[in-house]
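Field reference: "sequence" (input) and "structure" (output). Example, Ribosome-binding factor A:
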Amino acid sequence: MVSDRIAKVNSLIQHELAASLTTELEAKDYLITVIGVDTSPDLRHCNVWITVMPEKFNGTALEQLRKASHGINEKLRGRLKMKFVPKLVFKIDTQEAEARDVEALLDRLGRDEEK
């Protein structure tokens, strides 16, 4: 279970990241959305879950985020009133795509049962 403190830190980091990604990255062909943030209990590491639309730019977006992560961390360090700002690790959230696949499968099964 996530403690209240970690939940607040997650929320704050997610909010600040969403605001700073628009200024830090030159993403003309795609849109990056911060879906969730998971900060470790010691506040040293933070997994940032993102989605990219369209999905064909997943690799490009991750590469840009990894290159810009030092600058993003520096901005967060200036904005957040924390002793340590966690090291960010960006990851693609695949749950949305998996949910679409499950829905398509259920639709197909429903059509097969109607026949």
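Residues 4-114 form a domain with the GMP Synthetase; Chain A, domain 3 fold (CATH 3.30.300.20).
The CA atoms of residues 30 and 75 lie 23 Å apart.
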